[in-house]
Amino acid sequence: MGGQMRHVLSGHHHGTAVIRSSATILKRSSSVIALTFAIGLAAPALAGPITATWNGGAGNWMDSNWSFDASAGSTFPRNDATDQYNVRIDGGNTGTASAVTLTAPATIDSLDVDTDDSLLVEGTGLTIVRDPSRPASGSVQNSGSITVEAQGIGFARLRLESDVTFDGGGVLTLAGPALQPTWPG
What's residue 162's pLDDT? Predict the structure, then answer.
């Protein structure tokens, strides 16, 4: 398998599950959360990754509130055939609590959420990929809060592809109506 689960399910209450750890998370608000390990094939080598840093405050992932350490082909981070992104929610700015909401699918190489910051994946999917040709790929450092929340009868997903590490003292919350966690054996 692609990795190991640690601290799987720390609690659930009224349609919300709080998980502190790793793997692929697929959440259906109607009845099922499936936790599986994705074993993927490495993509062909592309240009070097770009660090995308949220500039602080609250906003939508698709807003043009990002700074890039290299020329990017987009105003927001989302891997494509040309660019791959290491994402940092406000890059360690301890003076600003940042709350970012993702409402459209995105794939990135890595994610870093600081202590006073949060990411809400709302009714869509976020995929973190690991590619051996890009050493910084395949990691989530969550010292803040990541919430994956389904809307209505839809789903929300956090997918960790291949051997992605999920670390930090933050909280991962799965939320939505009729939440029922299931863990395949």
Answer: 86
